[in-house]
Design a protein that fits this description.
alpha/beta, eight-stranded mixed sheet
């Protein structure tokens, strides 16, 4: 009997996805360039299950029912292109390839167009949830060839996480690279959430002098309220883990963070489409700064700053930290959704913003109860231009912004870096400002480059130039792009 789907790349994520599929009633053929991996999987975790090990691409394709569905779980980039190049001559009209890795959305768009030109179908599916999600139910964000959805829908929605009873955290995102784009934005928001939590931890540790046990209790309390989320939950658990000597393991981990590149992609794309993604950008740069460990050690012995000291009401300030974290989280998701909105506009994608929030409610790394509020915001107003303008978000940020200001004031006075929280407040104050100092900036640009400006006392779209020195002449450059 032929398998219903094939998978190439039997790493831990691949293995767990296969086991998830098989547990939901699907037969799966697997292939990997490592024969040992196939042997170990089929005779080990896959033993006795409807999992067929294949030792060549040809054998894999021959083992699949029509139309063939082949999922790739391999590193993004050249590896994906190489496998596609191998598969294409062996496939028939209507067969489809699924990329379940973290590919850049532009690559997915290119591959979709190329395969469709050969009468084949392509799906770029963002998969979030890590190894546990892959096994027990991830969030899946598929996009690409629209005709492919009916073939992959039964499998993807069966293996996805479920919320609100039995609603799968998987639905069709849209055309071309939209699925991987949404996954990229998810990862960018993940960067922001993690950095915000780290800053809250740092303020409690270095300003309030709290122990791991004390912070564990705070995160436990936060996870029972409006901050309830997977990342708050695992931070609570991390703070409770002890090393063999009984001391907190966290205190022994080197403060040098890594990254795989999706955060950088998110930031670069925000610049391409012209939307401010300041919080996530600061989160990416915070990881870069952390990687400069040796330089920071040297600088700490040379550069001076204030000695952290707190003399206020500790309990009230811990409440402020929680509210500040919540306020900054509101800004982070607001910026992420602004990027989704700009992409839908620029790339012609019909994105369901509320549906995306629902897909992130379970299975993925940024899953939280908070996402239900985003879904509700777009149900209330499908044309919402900014989450902060939704009644719930407006009320929430009004209630919590003073705490954010309090925490940042104390952090700045005491020399504790809070780049993501600081950027959140700067964005909020900038967005709510009717007037910004960009009038001076435009005057400067016109002064040295004759770039022209608009006037408040003239209709929008009319441009003017001033010969500021009397020597500049009346010749102008191109107008600004806003």
């Amino acid at each position: 009997m032929q398998s219903q789907i094939g998978l190439i790349g039997v790493g831990l994520m691949g293995e767990n996805l296969v086991l998830n599929m098989e547990s939901k009633g699907f037969s799966v053929s697997v292939f990997d360039i490592s024969k040992q991996k196939i042997d170990n999987f089929v005779s080990g975790r896959g033993n006795g299950k409807r999992i067929h090990g294949c030792f060549s691409v040809q054998e894999l394709i021959a083992s699949l029912a029509l139309p063939r569905k082949i999922m790739l779980m391999v590193p993004a980039g050249k590896a994906v292109d190489d496998i596609i190049e191998t598969l294409v001559p062996l496939l028939a009209k209507g067969d489809l390839i699924i990329d379940g890795g973290n590919s850049h959305f532009t690559d997915t768009t290119r591959r979709t167009r190329m395969l469709e030109s050969k009468d084949l179908l392509y799906v770029g599916a963002g998969v979030s949830g890590g190894k546990e999600g892959a096994l027990l139910g991830p969030s899946i964000m598929p996009g690409g060839s629209v005709a492919a959805w009916e073939s992959v829908k039964p499998i993807f929605q069966a293996i996805a996480a479920k919320v609100d009873g039995d609603v799968p955290c998987c639905d069709w995102i849209g055309e071309e690279g939209s699925g991987h784009f949404v996954k990229m934005v998810h990862n960018g928001i993940e960067y922001g959430d993690m950095q915000l939590i780290c800053e809250a931890y740092d303020v409690m540790r270095n300003l309030l002098g709290m122990t791991a046990d004390e912070m564990h209790d705070v995160f436990k309390q936060w996870n029972e309220g409006e901050l309830e989320s997977y990342l708050i939950e695992i931070t609570r658990d991390i703070l409770a883990v002890r090393d063999q000597d009984g001391l907190p393991l966290l205190d022994k981990i080197l403060d040098k963070a890594g990254q795989k590149g999706t955060g950088k992609w998110t930031v670069n794309t925000s610049l391409d489409v012209g939307t401010p993604l300041t919080l996530i950008t600061e989160s990416v740069f915070a990881r870069v700064l952390s990687s400069m460990k040796d330089e920071r050690v040297l600088a700490s012995k040379i550069l001076s700053g204030p000695k952290a000291h707190f003399s206020g009401d500790k309990k009230a300030f811990i409440d402020d930290i929680g509210n500040a974290l919540y306020a900054a989280k509101l800004i982070s998701y607001t910026q992420g959704y602004q990027l989704l909105r700009a992409a839908a506009r620029d790339f012609g994608w019909n994105l369901d913003f509320g549906g995306i929030a629902l897909m992130w409610r379970g299975g993925c790394i940024i899953r939280s109860a908070f996402l239900g509020k985003i879904k509700a915001a777009f149900v209330l107003n499908p044309d919402l231009v900014n989450l902060l303008l939704d009644p719930f978000f407006k009320t929430a940020i009004s209630r919590s912004q003073q705490s954010l200001r309090n925490v940042l004031a104390e952090a700045i006075k005491n020399g504790i870096p809070t780049p993501a929280m600081s950027s959140a407040l700067a964005y909020y104050d900038g967005y709510r400002s009717e007037n910004l100092p960009a009038n001076l900036l435009q005057a400067q640009r016109d002064f040295f480059g004759a770039h022209q400006y608009e006037r408040t006392d003239q209709p929008r779209g009319a441009y003017f130039h001033t010969n500021w020195t009397g020597r500049g002449g009346e010749t102008t450059s191109t107008v600004y792009s806003a």
